[in-house]
């Protein structure tokens, strides 16, 4: 009986052993299948990531091809609403053909009164159809930025981008680039925090630009919003901001007043090479220029407030808040990401973009501004630098005409600090947009005509194709 009981227990143990072996075999089989599935999923994920990288690259290429088709140097026009009541019997100076019917907003008609030899007055209309976009007096800050945003995207894609505002004093350049004098430099918070941050970056506050903000705050908001999405996709980013002004032909750091700045052209082998339509490989470097790390719209606004307080401004007969210098805001963007090829090789892709936003001081007629003393010196420096800019544009156009014959006039980029600074923007090293601003007051017609004449010259310039700054290691 005892032996029988032991045998029964033995049989039970043997059965449990067989069950355990069966379970183990099944588990091993499942493990093998899981490992195989893991390998397959890993390969599939790698292929999908490769396709995503290719898709993003295709998107960047297509986006920038579209920008190139629009022209290396694009020209926009914005008309400021009248600041004074229109005199009796004087009609509107500007009209916008096609706007009422929803047509293409690229045309501007300018109406002036011409006095004939016999004393009779005739209305003359000049039609301007060379613009890439025309903004009327009813278009707001958001309407203007919406058309600029594509170029801001190009800076994130690794290109140099330059947007500069040109026009007579009081025509709205600073308002367009920065915002009105009453603008708050506090970025309203959405109450949300980006939680996709890594060990390399703290959570980014998702703030928004002020409602009446100009291009600089809106561009900062657009860039940091996009960087947040790119970081969630594996990119690492770092940005620095710089501000300077050219005052009486002297560059000044608007963030670190102690810096002694020098604007110099460097040739091949001395710095980053830039192809120039003048036939030389040259780039422009600002030596000793301080760069401040920024990671949000709010951080840019804090620097902008500091720069505005340090910038040379004064009240004149032409403008209550007249900028007495040319100013440049630069945002340097570096993006890095580790990528793996289908062959299993690892590489680091680096994009270096640069956004330059320039607010040029306005031209003034001395008989109108009644400038004396320091204001007179400032006005002369401003007008001389703008005259040199006009000469450079004229020389570039003449060089284009003489290109086939292998000749062309000298282009005097070094004749002023402003033209030296703008050389990369005018010779194909960057994607460039000029925004000409006009006053709609009747007394400003002559200055508006001069601004339009300059805008036409810029629109007729051909710059080279901007190169993307990307490296792979």
TrEMBL record:
Annotated InterPro entries: Kinesin-like_fam, Kinesin_motor_CS, Kinesin_motor_dom, Kinesin_motor_dom_sf, P-loop_NTPase
GO annotation, biological process: microtubule-based movement
Keywords carried by this UniProt record: ATP-binding, Coiled coil, Microtubule, Motor protein, Nucleotide-binding
Origin: domain of life: Eukaryota
A Pfam family per the record: Kinesin
Compositionally biased intervals (Polar residues): 171-181
Annotated ATP binding sites: 167-174
One Gene Ontology MF term: ATP binding
Chain residue ranges for the region called Disordered: 82-101, 170-214
Chain segments annotated as coiled-coil in the UniProt record: 24-72
Annotated ranges, domain Kinesin motor: 72-461
PROSITE patterns, A to Z: KINESIN_MOTOR_1, KINESIN_MOTOR_2
GO terms under cellular component: microtubule
Record flagged with keyword Coiled coil: yes
Family statement: Belongs to the TRAFAC class myosin-kinesin ATPase superfamily. Kinesin family.
Protein name as annotated: Kinesin-like protein
Organism listed in the record: Kipferlia bialata
